[in-house]
Write a structure and sequence with these properties.
Structural class: mainly alpha
Protein name: GatB/YqeY domain-containing protein
CATH topology: Hypothetical Protein Yqey, Chain: A, domain1
CATH superfamily: Uncharacterised protein YqeY/AIM41, N-terminal domain
Helix content: over 70%
GO molecular function, one term: carbon-nitrogen ligase activity, with glutamine as amido-N-donor
Number of helices: 5
Organism: candidate division WWE3 bacterium
Radius of gyration: 15 Å
Largest sheet: none
Strand content: under 5%
Length: 103
């Protein structure tokens, strides 16, 4: 399952002190856990497809943040959001190709 891979990556980033990637990954994992809590009352399981939808949502939010920051001439915000977006797009590679087409 993808979640196990993400948690392994989190440990690796922590050991290597890769703080930018670690921060983005921690946020992503927390959003996955929130989704899992949301699905519990509906008796639904957390699948790789659900996790991918969470990732797509975060990527969409980052793109919107970048656009707003550009309109406000906030170059530092644009740079940090674009760096985080690049890390998130790297995570897309963990998912099966049939899901990757959706982005």
């Amino acid at each position: 399952m993808i979640l196990e891979q993400l948690k392994t990556m989190q440990t690796d980033y922590l050991k290597s002190k890769d703080m930018p990637r670690l921060g983005v990954l921690r946020y992503f994992i927390s959003q996955i856990q929130n989704k899992e809590i949301e699905l519990r009352p509906q008796k639904q399981e957390l699948t790789d497809e659900v996790i991918f939808r969470v990732l797509k949502k975060i990527i969409k939010q980052k793109n919107e943040s970048i656009e707003l920051a550009k309109k406000a001439d906030r170059d530092s915000v644009v740079a940090s959001e674009e760096a985080e977006l690049a890390i998130l797009k790297d995570l897309v590679k963990l998912f099966p190709e049939e899901l990757q087409v959706q982005i």
